[in-house]
Amino acid sequence: MADIAIFDMDGTLVDSGLDITLSINYVRGVRYEMEPLSIREVVDAINAPKRNLARIFYGTELYEDEARRLFESHYYDQCIQNVAPYEGIGALLESLKNRGFAIGVATNAPGTFARRMLSHVGFEPYFDLIVGADDVELPKPHPQMIQLHLEKHRYGPGADRAWMVGDNSKDMEAARNAGIRSVFAGWGFSAEGEGDYCASKPSELLRIMCEKG
Questions:
Q1: Whether the predicted model's global pTM rises above the 0.70 cut
Q2: Mean pLDDT of the chain
Q3: Which of 73, 88, 139, 148 has its CA 20 to 30 A from that of 27?
């Protein structure tokens, strides 16, 4: 039997809220002459089930190419300035790997940034596969990212176990769409959410994954 643990990144593995906010505020100031947003405003907007981030962040209906270029150029350097793992994540990944879990990442962040950030905090070697938004046609809540992980490990429903762990409703929906279990990570950007299981800290997640059949 294979055990597969798939993680969201921002707000689940690492706290990237400050760096995301600084890059968004850079674009707001340079491109739109707008006042800066707080980290809480940015994180709440990102995690809202339904939202138009272009409108919230930049006052536009669509994400303009120049705004995207400015953000990505700024964030490439910014994304490793303040990012930090959540307490207990390193020990969790080590424990899962020692128990034979296949571990991966499915994030709606571009894969270039994801790999850069996870390498910076020393986590990249734990993951068999890191899938970002630019690696698929359809990001979460579509199940395409998760399906890439399941296909890599030849997942068999009923024979194997697979989990999607995240702090966002899109993570939970993606898990449902892929037909696997979901665990809401209550230690990150959001303290409350709905999944098949909820964990308030990484040690609880380890117990859920190791004990639940």
A1: yes
A2: 96
A3: 139
